[in-house]
Amino acid sequence: MTQDAFTTEGYACRVVDLKKEYVLKSETVRALRGVTFDVPTGDYVAIMGPSGSGKSTLLNLLGCLDKPSSGSLWLGHDDVAKMSDDQLADIRSQRIGFVFQAYNLIQQLTVVENIQVPLFYQGKPLTAAQKNRSIELAKMVGLGDRLGHRPTQLSGGQQQRVAIARSLVNDPYFILADEPTGNLDSRTTEEILQTFERLNNEGRTVILVTHEDEVSKRAKRVVRLKDGRLQWDKINTQQVRDEAAKYAIDNMPVEV
Question: Taking the model in full, what pTM does it have?
Fold first, then answer.
């Protein structure tokens, strides 16, 4: 499919007939069997699926960590499925904001320095504007009083907030969050989900991979995979989202 066949305007990414095959011990594994869906700019999508559904494979492709066997993956006006490894590395550092389950912070760096890590990969000295933006992002996620702290001095929720700020430092096309609440307790999970919702309300595009139904209900849409295919792509009504948020708050453990 060529770019002229459809528009890329207004989309953070478009997944078109994406397929991925692996050869393991002379056997071909068809991890993705032709997946198609769109993520409009400003959307908030949860990707779900059981083990073996192709969810992790799709995550790697969306993050430009791997290449599909066939199909197209449009980020803006570019089909990244056709790019070289060096080009994909540039895409990862400039257009995608990653948030990981294990935070992936560098222990020797401060909060601000961790936020700046994606900028280091561009191989250029940091500008004053970039340094100021890193500080503003730390303040935005509620860590303005911990700019000089290192990860070991932060709670799990605070570390994940650093990771969210880091994901925004390059003004990415979308935030790609892989089980971002998987290591967190229910109270901290709620704080992180509220942060994603606030960012989405401000116009940020969020793609969140999760296995938790209650987390997926907080997104605007749920894309579910099964056996390498798209099982469903459904909208969460505002009522569903509000009820999920209320349920999370009402069932939160009492602090002692």
Answer: 0.91
